[in-house]
Design a protein that fits this description.
Elements: H1 31-47, E1 51-54, H2 59-71, E2 76-77, E3 87-89, E4 103-105, H3 110-113, H4 122-133, E5 141-149, E6 158-164, H5 167-176, E7 178-179, H6 181-188, E8 193-199, E9 220-224, E10 229-233, H7 238-241, H8 244-260, E11 263-265, E12 268-273, E13 279-285, H9 292-296, E14 306-311, E15 315-319, E16 325-328, E17 333-337, H10 347-352, E18 358-360, E19 363-364, E20 370-371, E21 383-384, E22 390-391, E23 405-409, E24 426-427, E25 430-434, E26 444-446, H11 450-458, E27 461-463, E28 475-477, H12 490-502, E29 511-515, H13 535-546, E30 551-554, E31 557-560, H14 574-580, H15 585-600, H16 608-626
Parallel strand pairs: 1-5, 3-18, 4-9, 6-8, 8-10, 13-25, 25-29
Antiparallel strand pairs: 2-3, 5-6, 5-7, 9-10, 11-15, 12-13, 12-14, 15-16, 16-24, 17-23, 18-23, 19-20, 21-22, 26-29, 27-28, 30-31
Length: 627
Amino acid sequence: MAIANLFTRSAAPAIVPAAPVYGSRPDYSSGAMADLYAWVDSIAELTQPDRVHWVDGSRSENEALLREQVEEGKLIKLNPEWRPGSYLARSHPSDVARTEARTFIASEREEDAGPTNNWAAPDEIRATITPLFEGSMRGRTMYVVPFSMGAVGGPLSHIGVQITDSAYAVTSIGIMTRVGTAVLDQIAEGKPWVKTVHSVGAPLEPGEKDVAWPCNDEKYIVHFPDTLEVWSYGSGYGGNAILAKKCFALRIASVIGRDEGWLAEHMLLIRVIDPAGKAYHVAAAFPSACGKTNLAMLRPTIPGWRVETLGDDIAWIRPGEDGRLWAINPEAGFFGVAPGTGESTNVTAVETLWGNTIFTNVALRPDGDVWWEGLTDDAPAELIDWEGNPWTPESGRLAAHPNSRFTVSAGQCPQIAPDWDAPEGVPLDAILFGGRRATNVPLVVEATDWTHGVFIGSNISSERTAAAEGTVGELRRDPFAMLPFCGYNMADYFSHWLKVGQALRFDRAPRIFQVNWFRKGSDGRFLWPGFGDNSRVIDWIIRRVDGSVDAVDSPIGRLPKVEDLNLDGIDVPAEDLEELFAVDPDLWLQEADLTEEFYATFDGRVPAPLQSELSALRYRLRQATQS
């Protein structure tokens, strides 16, 4: 269907939009672009927008879209004296987070989705969502957003196109990815691309006034891994609307990586530089609330050490011809949780947010700046809360939503690596896995080899409740920090990690470690200071990579000698250090039983090498109980 026909769907005259149309369909003659044109036309015919705008990614276009959202009451322009080029959005109270319960993997076979995903039969779920999209963009503009994950044309990059009726999503995608006509050039040359479709599900009738945050109570996010598509309906928030993020960069990309022999991972990426100027590259996977952003922007407390940020959330990792793993951050921005981000916890993040930032669901100060819990030690005397209501410290409620966010370009980070977006990426020296464990798990433990490292990654967990008297608390499993984001059966994902390791040179594969900043003493007190002092653990990891320090064998892996930890300038009592590295064989045998229960949920699909690792762990623990 031709674009021009979008304005003449029925006998009724087309409604003239109040806002100008900023772009038109680019003119390409290649057959690959003909496929894109046909797809865009088919979505337009289904959703029936008033206007179609092909996004070119220009600064003037972005400024026009932001200005339009301010005029419509969808964004609040912040005081440029305090926060230049920045805006505040307030979502509907029903649309404040990822909708995991309404997120589906529509693979042809249910077993390919696995027990950790919500599965839907492709034909059945299409029959469910297609009627929802029928006419869903009436009265709105349909934006066509070509984007690249990673540098455009890079050897580790992939591209996609998002169709959306949300200008908020468009401006956010413009921060989080590389948007523009250069991506269309790639499509015209025949490079494969991923199709993503998003609608807030709030069509407007002629003359109907829009709301500040359009959305729908009915929500779906459906991934079709066999056809590399994502369809999202009803939500305008975060990863529900920015489909390049979790939907493409993890769920769909994990499937592409499985098929092509690489890894799409929920990992930060940093460069650690020692006092002699030697650089090392570290990727780390942490579930939420486990210090991931703080480590991505770490400021070491050890004199002479530096950390450069490469990425805070996602890493795409490929085996290189040199036998090493090479990684890129496929994103172009940070989409971070605001509460808890402050001068005392992550000054780098605070400095990144000086301007050109879209904030969502934080509080508004009387002077036109923003605030959230944790930004400063003391709250302002008065605010407008995230729902637009007056707030004071005596209000008895939070001023900012717990999942309030900031969206900002990675390039604004004061410690971003100069080559953070290099197309070829960086070679990995170490991979870290971590969770929030009050008991059992030492401050740091090194895997004995790649298979053991995969075993550790498959068992990452955090305690739901505070543990008491040395018992193992109820565990929330999040293997590889990928539980909500793996686009296929997670047991097969474990197998894929093992397979990737087989392609590496044994002396060039990154070393794998587990870290735990959150172990507590019997009095409930954290035993390790954390934050910038986590650099002392990184220091030991780097020296293990270099082979300059030995380790102590334990039933669960290799532990540091306490004297090899650089503790200059901090006071960690000897008894705390002993408890930080204590391995109780009886408690770890309980842990092994929990691992067996977890593996059993995959109906025998967990690869044999990991089952062997579990058996070997139990053997070593029983030996330890007898010694």
